[in-house]
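task queued by scheduler; priority normal; single chain, no ligands, no partner chains; default sampling; output format set to structure tokens
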Amino acid sequence: MQSIDLICVGKLNAPYFAAGVAEYQKRLAAFCRFRIIELPECPIADKNASPAQVEKALAREGEAILGAVRKGAFVAALCIEGQQIPSEELAALIARRAGSGAGDMAFVIGSSHGLAGSVKAAAGAKLSMGRITLPHQLARLVLAEQLYRACSINAGLKYHK
């Protein structure tokens, strides 16, 4: 069975987001070994932090993210410059990975400052949820739903109409 990890920087602190993500996590168990890995956001003390301070924090987060990726897993980074794809293409990406013999995948959502260049460089795919800005907690819920939708498409279920 394929392993799919959702690696996120930051915690879910709103109960309604946590409940939604937990529901999709439960549903995904029928299709894959799905786990969510929450990593701490590196604090930046100064609200007017310099680009160098932000880069330093992102570098620390990037090390933690890459350290959490399963060996040999395909990394998909969610970032603003990523490609927008429909649900069917996400399903096809997951199916291709599952059929490749190296099916483990890690989807990564960075902190409010984004993702380190090292994570983007390690990614086999860069994906975007669109040009709108989403809070990271909502992005996690949307991604969990889209992963469930993709697995449902691959299983031939009627969830995706």
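post-processing summary
- The radius of gyration is 15 Å.
- The mean pLDDT is 93.
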